[in-house]
C-alpha cells in the first residue's frame, strides 16, 4: 500500500506545540479562536479514559485498551485548559485551567473536562468584543456545562448558569456569533453522547445577562434530529447542521429577524440523499461564494448505538440560492437530480478510514479540510472480521500508510491537493480537530488521545510505555495572506 505524496506547492506547516503542551493528558485541541492578536486553544483531557468510562452500548473490540485507565477515573487530573500563543514572540502561556468544584453528592470534580467551542462576539453597545468558550462537564459528578467569557484574554469568568439551568446538559459544542448575538445548542446529556433531549438553537441577545432563549423548534420539529452539531454564518444567514441517525443530517438556515422562534428553512435533507451514512454535520466553512459542509458518523465512522455505518465521510457545498453540489463522496440519484462528486473523489477522499470531516478553514484563497482517521486503532483491534483481514494485510502496513489524519486543500472545490496523509508524520494524530485562519497564519490543532502512555507490543505481550508522540499538537502555516 503506497501512501499518496503531499503536494509541496500548497504551503509548509511547522509544529509550534507538541505532547499536549508538555502534558500528554491534554489530548484534544478541541477549540480555537483568534483574539487580540493571540491564538487561543481549548483542550480536552484524557479522552480515551473518558470514553472507556462511558462507552457506547456495543464498544469497539480493542485489546488492550490503547491507554491505561485507572480504577478510579477521578484520580486523574481531568481539568481542561486554555492556552494562548503569541506569534510575535513564538511563546505559549497557559491562560486558564478549570477549577475543582464540589459536584453532585458533594464529590469533588473538575468543573470543565473540555472546552469544545470558541467564538468572538461584540454585543450591541459594547466597545470591544469578548472571547466566549463553551465547555463539557462530567455526567456523573458535574452540575452542568459552563460557558466562560474573557474581555482581555487573560481573565476568564463563568458566564451563564451551569447547563443553562439543567444539570443534565453536560456539553455545548457549536458556538457562533451573528448580528451581535451568540448562538449555541446543547450537544450532550448525561448518559447520552452527542445527543440532546431538547436540541434547539439557543440565542443570547444580551451578552451582559448571559440569558438564553430557544429560537427554533427542538430538532426543527423532527424527533430524529438528535442534536444540532454545527452553526455557521453564510450569505447573511445563520446555518445549522443536525445529527439524524435515522434519515441522515439536515441543514437549516434563518435570517434571525423578527421575534423568536425565527423562521427557518430546510436547505438539505436526508443526509444529502445518502441517508444515515451521512449521519451528522461535523464541520462547516465559508469559502468563496459557497458554504462547505462536512459529514461524519459518530464514534469514528461506525455508530454502534444506532447501527449506522461503517462508512467514510463526505463533503458538499451549498450555494446562496440553496442549491448544493456533491464535492467528495458517492455518486447517486437524488430528488435534485443526479449528483457526482465535482472532485472525482469518493467518500473520505478515497480513504475508508475517514470517519469525519472534522475541521475546515479558508485561508489565503484556499480551502483546507481536515479529517479523523481511525486506522491507528487497527493496532489494538480484536474483532473477528477485522483481524482476519489484518492477518492478510498487516496492521503496521496500514498504519504506516494511513495512520494519522488527512489534510487536503483546494482553491475551487474541484481540484484538491494533499497536504498530509499521515497526521504530519505522527500516526497518533488521528484527527485535525480544529483549524483557525488568522492574520498571522493558518493554525491546525490535532486530536491525539494516545498519551501520556500508550500500549506497545513487546514480544508476545503488551505493556504501557511513555509516548513521546502522544498528546495534542498545534501546527502553523505562516506563508500566505488572509483574503480581505
Blueprint of the fold:
Blueprint: E1 14-17, E2 26-35, E3 38-45, H1 47-53, E4 81-86, E5 91-97, E6 100-102, E7 108-110, E8 114-121, E9 130-136, E10 147-150, E11 157-159, E12 169-178, E13 181-189, E14 202-204, E15 213-214, E16 227-234, E17 237-243, E18 251-254, E19 265-268, H2 270-273, E20 280-287, E21 290-296, H3 298-301, E22 315-318, E23 324-328, E24 332-334, E25 337-339, H4 347-350, E26 354-363, E27 366-373, H5 384-393, H6 395-402, E28 407-410, E29 416-420, E30 431-438, E31 441-447, E32 453-458, E33 461-466, E34 474-477
Antiparallel strand pairs: 1-34, 2-3, 3-4, 4-5, 6-7, 8-9, 9-10, 10-11, 12-13, 13-14, 14-15, 16-17, 17-18, 18-19, 20-21, 21-22, 22-23, 24-25, 26-27, 27-28, 28-29, 30-31, 31-34, 32-33
Strand arrangement across the biggest beta sheet: 1-34-31-30
The gyration radius over C-alpha positions equals 21 Å
Mean pLDDT: 93
Which structural category do the helix and sheet elements fall into? mainly beta
Instruction: Write down the CATH class.
Output: Mainly Beta
**CATH topology type:** Neuraminidase
Summarize the biggest pleated sheet: 4 strands, antiparallel
Number of domains: 1
Strand content: 35-45%
Ranges with pLDDT <50 over ≥5 residues?
none
CATH architecture: 6 Propeller
Fraction in helix = under 10%
Q: How many DSSP-defined strands?
A: 34
CATH superfamily: Kelch-type beta propeller
What would you call the shape? globular
Provide a brief overview of the structure.
This protein is mainly β and 484 residues long. The chain has 6 helices and 34 strands.
Features:
34 strands; 484 residues; single chain; 8% helix; four-stranded antiparallel β-sheet; Neuraminidase
Amino acid at each position: 500500500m503506497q501512501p499518496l505524496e503531499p503536494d509541496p506547492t500548497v504551503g509548509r506547516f511547522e509544529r509550534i506545540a507538541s505532547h499536549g503542551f508538555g502534558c500528554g493528558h491534554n489530548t484534544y485541541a478541541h477549540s480555537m479562536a483568534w483574539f487580540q492578536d493571540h491564538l487561543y486553544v481549548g483542550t480536552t483531557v484524557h479522552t480515551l479514559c473518558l470514553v472507556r468510562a462511558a462507552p457506547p452500548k456495543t464498544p469497539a473490540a480493542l485489546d488492550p485498551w490503547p491507554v491505561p485507565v485507572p480504577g478510579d477515573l477521578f484520580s486523574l487530573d481531568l481539568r481542561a485548559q486554555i492556552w494562548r500563543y503569541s506569534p510575535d514572540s513564538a511563546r505559549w502561556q497557559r491562560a486558564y485551567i478549570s477549577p475543582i468544584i464540589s459536584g453532585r453528592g458533594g464529590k469533588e470534580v473538575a468543573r470543565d473536562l473540555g472546552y469544545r467551542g470558541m467564538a468572538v462576539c461584540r454585543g450591541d453597545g459594547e466597545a470591544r468584543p469578548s472571547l466566549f468558550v463553551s465547555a463539557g462537564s462530567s455526567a456523573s459528578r458535574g452540575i452542568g456545562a459552563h460557558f466562560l467569557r474573557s474581555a482581555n484574554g487573560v481573565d476568564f469568568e463563568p458566564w451563564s448558569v451551569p447547563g443553562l439551568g439543567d444539570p443534565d446538559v453536560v456539553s455545548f459544542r457549536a458556538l457562533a456569533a451573528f448580528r451581535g448575538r451568540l448562538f449555541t445548542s446543547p450537544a450532550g446529556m448525561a448518559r447520552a453522547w452527542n445527543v440532546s433531549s431538547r436540541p434547539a438553537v439557543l440565542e443570547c441577545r444580551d451578552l451582559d445577562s448571559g440569558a438564553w432563549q430557544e429560537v427554533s423548534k427542538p430538532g426543527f420539529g423532527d424527533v430524529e434530529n438528535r442534536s444540532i452539531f454545527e452553526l455557521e454564518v453564510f450569505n447573511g444567514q445563520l446555518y445549522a447542521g443536525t445529527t439524524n441517525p435515522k434519515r441522515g443530517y439536515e441543514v437549516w438556515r434563518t435570517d434571525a429577524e423578527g421575534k423568536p422562534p425565527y423562521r427557518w428553512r430546510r436547505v438539505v435533507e436526508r443526509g444529502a440523499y445518502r441517508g444515515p451514512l451521512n449521519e451528522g454535520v461535523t464541520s462547516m466553512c465559508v469559502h468563496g461564494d459557497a458554504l462547505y459542509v462536512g459529514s461524519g458518523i459518530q464514534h469514528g465512522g461506525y455508530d454502534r448505538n444506532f447501527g449506522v455505518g461503517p462508512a467514510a465521510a463526505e463533503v458538499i457545498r451549498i450555494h446562496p440560492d440553496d442549491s448544493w453540489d456533491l464535492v467528495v463522496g458517492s455518486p447517486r440519484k437524488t430528488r435534485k437530480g443526479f449528483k457526482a462528486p465535482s472532485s472525482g473523489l469518493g467518500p473520505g477522499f478515497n480513504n475508508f478510514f475517514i470517519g469525519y470531516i472534522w475541521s475546515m478553514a479558508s485561508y489565503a484563497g484556499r480551502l483546507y479540510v481536515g479529517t479523523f482517521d481511525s486506522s491507528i486503532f487497527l493496532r489494538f483491534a480484536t474483532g473477528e472480521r477485522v483481524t482476519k483481514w489484518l492477518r492478510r494485510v498487516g496492521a503496521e502496513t496500514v498504519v504506516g500508510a494511513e495512520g494519522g489524519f488527512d489534510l487536503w486543500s483546494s482553491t475551487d472545490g474541484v481540484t484538491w491537493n494533499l497536504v498530509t496523509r499521515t497526521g504530519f508524520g505522527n500516526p497518533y494524530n488521528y484527527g485535525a480537530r480544529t483549524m483557525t485562519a488568522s492574520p498571522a497564519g493558518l493554525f491546525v490543532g490535532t486530536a491525539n488521545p494516545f498519551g501520556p502512555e500508550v500500549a506497545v507490543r513487546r514480544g508476545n505481550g503488551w505493556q504501557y510505555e511513555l509516548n513521546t508522540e502522544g498528546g495534542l499538537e498545534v501546527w502553523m502555516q505562516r506563508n500566505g495572506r488572509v483574503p480581505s
